[in-house]
Write a structure and sequence with these properties.
The complex is a heterodimer of chains A (115) and B (113). Chain A is an all-beta fold. Chain A has strands spanning 5-7, 10-13, 19-24, 31-37, 44-50, 53-56, 65-68, 75-79, 88-95, 105-106, 110-114. Chain A starts with a strand and ends with a strand. Helices cover 0% and strands 49% of the residues of chain B. In chain B, the strands form three sheets. In chain B, strands 2, 5, 6, 10, 11 and 12 form a six-stranded mixed β-sheet that branches. A four-stranded antiparallel β-sheet of chain B has the order 3-9-8-7, with no helix packed on it. In chain B, strands 1-4 form a two-stranded antiparallel sheet.
């Protein structure tokens, strides 16, 4: 597709379970970003990749959260031992280069609900 | 740390009314400033940006001017349309660091015919 694709669009899980959220960026974009948007809040930065490496993971809230991008394209955000407070919309974005014009292209998000 | 404050919504207007959505920021140095928009059922998309003081960003009839003296970046449009109904987010990035955007909480705009 032409835009950033995120799957699943909705995920309901139980407290304590493991969850994976996938992001497929725009083809050719080398930079990929994860943000989290809680209800009534703006998106909050989690992590960004330049190529395969995590260039800045300072926004990950704790060690239950981990993200990978093994081939420099698709990325997976992994959440272990989910908690109710992890419920949010997880947004992925990509850009042609890190920095660049400052324009990030966002997907529609994956809504995670932890019961 | 860096932060963005924008007016709470929803903002409810009639078609062709004048729009202002206030945004102020706190940042070290001179950040770049952005307005992103989220239409129903779609992802966030960049509406306009300004990278230095006194710059004016504009797009689709929307404008915002980077005011360093008041640390503001208010969004304006002279005549709104029903199709402008969306959630608008003000955001900043530190100088030279577009990677880590700091967003405001968003303002929902509802335009009625």
């Amino acid at each position: 597709g032409a835009g950033v694709s995120q799957t699943p669009s909705n995920k309901v899980t139980e407290k304590g379970k493991y969850v994976e959220l996938r992001c497929d960026p725009i083809s050719g974009h080398t930079a990929l970003y994860w943000y989290r948007q809680s209800l009534g809040q703006g998106p909050e930065f989690l992590i960004y990749f330049q190529g395969t490496g995590a260039a800045d993971d300072s926004g990950l809230p704790n060690d239950r959260f981990f993200a990978v991008r093994p081939e420099g394209s698709v990325s997976t955000l992994k959440i272990q031992r989910t908690e109710r407070g992890d419920s949010a919309v997880y947004l992925c974005a990509s850009s042609l280069l890190a920095g660049g014009t400052g324009e990030l292209f966002f997907g529609e998000g994956s809504r995670l609900t932890v019961l | 740390g860096d932060s963005v404050t924008q007016m709470e919504g929803p903002v409810t207007l009639s078609e062709e009314a004048f729009l202002t959505i206030n945004c102020t920021y706190t940042a070290t140095g001179y950040p770049s400033l952005f307005w992103y928009v989220q239409y129903p059922g779609e992802g966030l998309q960049l509406l306009l940006k300004a990278t230095k003081a006194d710059d004016k960003g504009s797009n689709k009839g929307f404008e915002a001017t980077y005011r360093k003296e008041t640390t503001s970046f208010h969004l304006e449009k002279g005549s709104v349309q029903v199709s402008d109904s969306a959630v608008y987010f003000c955001a900043l990035s530190p100088r030279g660091g577009f990677q880590k955007l700091v967003f405001g909480t968003g303002t929902r705009l509802l335009v009625s015919p």
